[in-house]
Design brief:
61% of the residues lie in helices and 0% in strands. It is mainly α.
C-alpha cells in the first residue's frame, strides 16, 4: 500500500517542470540559458577539426552531450522551434539570417 507522504511520479514531474520554468524565467536564469545556447553547440557544429584536419570522436561525444543538455532544458521549457531560433539569434547578438556560427 502507498504511503501518504509519497508523491506519485506525475506530481514530482509537475513540480520539477515548475522549478525549471521559475529558474529560467528569472533574469539570471535567462542569462545562463543564453550563455549555454551560445557556448554549447546549439547553433554550431559539434565536430571539431584541429589544424591538421583531424577530428576526435571523443570531443564530438562531449560536445553532443553539452548540446543535449541545452536541448533538454528547452524541451522542458516547452520552447517552439520559432522560440529557439529567436533565442539563438539573441544569444549571438542579433539577426543571423537563419545561419548561426
Amino acid at each position: 500500500m502507498k504511503k501518504v507522504e509519497e508523491k506519485d511520479t506525475s506530481q514530482i514531474q509537475t513540480e520539477l517542470l515548475l522549478k525549471y520554468k521559475k529558474c529560467f524565467a528569472s533574469p539570471e536564469g535567462a542569462a545562463v540559458l543564453s550563455d549555454m545556447i551560445r557556448n554549447h553547440h546549439l547553433a554550431s557544429s559539434t565536430v571539431y577539426f584541429d589544424r591538421g584536419g583531424n577530428s576526435s570522436p571523443y570531443l564530438l561525444y562531449y560536445n553532443e552531450g553539452a548540446r543535449n543538455v541545452v536541448l533538454r532544458i528547452l524541451t522542458v521549457l516547452e520552447k517552439t522551434p520559432e522560440d529557439i531560433l529567436k533565442m539563438q539569434s539573441d544569444a549571438i547578438g542579433g539577426d543571423s539570417g537563419g545561419y548561426f556560427r
